[in-house]
Every structure is written in structure tokens, then in C-alpha cells.
Amino acid sequence: MPTVNTLVVDRADLLGLGQLHQLRGRVGRAGQRAYAYLFTPPDRSLNEQAHERLRTIGENTELGSGFRIAMRDLEIRGAGNLLGTGQSGHIAAVGYDLYCQMVTEAVAELAGTVPPEVVEVRVELPVDAHLPEDYVSRGDLRLEAYRKLAEAGTRSDPDAVEAVRAEWEDRYGPPPKPVQALLSVARLRSACVARGITEVAVAKGPGLGGPDLIARCAPVVLPLSRQTRLARLYKGSRYKEEQRQLLLPVKTGAGVDLAAAIGDMLDDLVPAGPDPA
């Protein structure tokens, strides 16, 4: 309808997300703004799926939003059974990401291969590490960026985190301080994965001229030669062999990257093992 710039849809709650997107695209052209009015009965409450469909259509109005609408429709309706006749449902009970993970694991099991085990590393640092809205404005892109960085942090290859950093800098520009801190934490996680460390927690130091903070890393198996190096180079450090805990002193101050400082000490003291993947 090249001469029409307004579309009115009654009972829009009865239409699917794909239908709404296609109808909306029937009006307007590149040089002409168009309007689509979607009406629902004022005396009836919408069910959850209808509300999500209309909200998705309202949020995705810019050019190129079709893929995001399709992904959202997949989450709302479900993908159905891969080897059956059902075309909806099944995925909705667990969510799209978990469903994809389950399918990947099932395919690997049928193929006789063992999927790599994800090593969970708990890092507790008093740092401001996040993606600000003024750096990545769209919520879906921030979630995707967090997901990519989390995946990179579970690998022992430091190049994985650097690849994410390069992608962010190319798409969004130079990273501000909170983003730099977030990347440093991911590098620390990657270093921990390479060494079999599952916990890094930072607490206040003893004061009285001692270190400002103490980083506790566990589990750590430190050879005798590295224990000697620890006592010689890092004043205030301790290694608890029975608990397999390494206590590292950390100084604070302007410009100090806490995660990077801990990572550098781990690189110096704890030998990296093979990639668990």
C-alpha cells in the first residue's frame, strides 16, 4: 500500500508477533513516516504472552529490528520439538539460552564427545566493574556483552578476553574506567581457570603499616621453590598449605588496578596448568 501511511489494527492481542511485525511493515516507505495503531479491548485484561508480544513490537521500531523480534518470539512461544511435530512450546519452560545449552550437551552426548566442563570462579573485589548505559545504551546489547565476557572468563586463554575488549572498542569506543575494571576482573578469572583456582576474595588488611588489603586465593598448590619466592618478594604474604590458601598483600591507591595486581602476582607465583577444556 504505497499511498497509505496509517494502519489501524483491532484486537491486536489475538495476532502473533510475526503477524504484527508483517502488518506494521505494510504501510510507509523509505521517505515517508508511517503509523500503526494497535488496539486491545479496554474491558479485558491481556494474558502474559499477548502483553509480551505487544511490548516487543512497541520496543523494536528501528530499522533492522526483525531479528530481535524473531528471537523474542522464539523465547515467548518456544522453538518446539526438534524431532517432533510440535512447533511451539517446550523451550519456554527453561528459557532460550538454557535450552540451547541443553541441546548442545545432548548432541555431544549422542556423538560420543564430552563437552568441556565450565569452571566456576568466585571473585569478590571491592571495585566498580560494569557496563554503563552511556557506553552501551541498549539493554539487550549489554546483556549480550556480559554473556560474551562471561564465556571468555571461563577459558584459560587470555586472548579470549582481549578479543572481547577489541570488539567493544570497535563497536562502542574506548572503554571507560568501569569497563576497564570489568575486563580486568575477567582476565583475573581467566588466570584462575588456568591455575585451578576457584575463589578469590579480598578483605581489609591488618593495618599498622601492613598491606591495605589481603587477597585470599584457593585452592592453590604452591611448590617449595615458589613458597621461598613468596616469602622473599611479597612482604605480608602467607601460604596455608593444609588449607591450600594463598594470602597476598595488595596495596591500594590512585590508579591501582586491583584485579590486575592480583593477576600479576598469580602469574609470578602459581604455575599455570593445561586448559581444562
Topology diagram in text:
Blueprint: E1 6-9, H1 17-24, E2 35-38, H2 48-59, H3 66-77, H4 96-111, E3 122-124, H5 139-153, H6 158-172, H7 177-195, E4 199-204, E5 213-218, H8 224-233, E6 238-240, E7 245-250, H9 258-269
Helix pairs in contact: 2-3, 5-6, 5-7, 6-7, 7-9
Task: Explain what the structure shows.
The protein has three domains: 6-77, Rossmann fold (3-Layer(aba) Sandwich), CATH 3.40.50; 79-115, no CATH class; 122-269, Aspartate Aminotransferase, domain 1 (Alpha-Beta Complex), CATH 3.90.1150.50. The protein starts with 5 loop residues before the first strand and ends in an 8-residue tail after the last helix. The protein has 277 residues and is an alpha/beta fold. The model has no long low-confidence stretch (mean pLDDT 82). It has helices at residues 17-24, 48-59, 66-77, 96-111, 139-153, 158-172, 177-195, 224-233, 258-269; strands at residues 6-9, 35-38, 122-124, 199-204, 213-218, 238-240, 245-250.
